Amino acid sequence: MYDIDLRDVFANRQEELRVRLARARSLPHPTSAGDEGEEGWTEVLRDFLPRRYDVARHRFVIDAEGRVSQQQDIVIYDGQFAPTFLVLGETQFIPVESVYAVLEVKTTMNRETVVYAGEKAASVRRLTHSPGKVLIYTGELVERAPIRPIAGLLCHDSDWADPFGEHFADALAGLSDDARLDMGCVALKGAFSVGVDAVVSADTDRALIAFCVALFDLLQKLGNAPGIDAIKYGKELWSHHDTSATDSSDAADD
What we know:
There is one protein chain. By secondary structure, this protein is an alpha+beta fold. It has one domain (6-235). The protein has helices at 6-26, 33-48, 111-125, 166-173, 207-222, 230-233, 248-253, and strands spanning 54-62, 72-77, 87-88, 91-95, 99-109, 131-135, 141-143, 150-158, 183-186, 190-194, 199-202, 227-228. A nine-stranded mixed sheet has the order 3-4-1-2-5-8-9-10-11, sandwiched between helices. Strand 6 (131-135) and strand 7 (141-143) form a beta hairpin. Helix 1 (6-26) runs antiparallel to helix 2 (33-48), helix 1 (6-26) crosses helix 5 and helix 3 packs parallel to helix 4 (166-173). The radius of gyration is 22 Å and the shape is globular. The N and C termini lie far apart (88 Å). 36% of the residues are buried. The mean pLDDT is 87.
């Protein structure tokens, strides 16, 4: 038996994640810089998070009433309860019940990008949840409570000299409850997590690993995503017939 310094473990993982993000950003893409950033962050999250969490880019979130969110840069969701039949053309929709987190990716963090990330998150949080019942180990069918998706902002750099100082606090304070950001990372400046009473931050040399660990902690606290009420999503597929009424011709024969 021997001891290990967890700081060394985290420092090593930080470097692995940093290299992965830098590699993704440096690859030639026939797309915008924003798309390159999304691909890099998606690779980092897929590399870090357990396989139970699916990570997808450019997805819309939908509810059983057909209301759709704004397009999300990155969605972390439970693939077990996110059926693939919600597709229109090349667009795949993720049911809101299955969504754990939505993350906005921007090149630079400033007031505008903080507000924009909040608006995108609010468009998901305002959707209506229609959880279905799932079978648990006791043999019971239970309906789990809906989860409130985590909202975050991922950037390469920040316009603010003090990235998590007064200007950042003012931008966060102006967000509505539905638009509230929970956490984020600025690769060149650090990471942040928004608590009930304060914002905590991590320095640049441990930003990526600090963000990923904090994200995983929040995901664990959400627990399992509820199942979806698939019949409610597919209600337009069915015709309803009144089986209680007696056919008039049968009544005449009696």
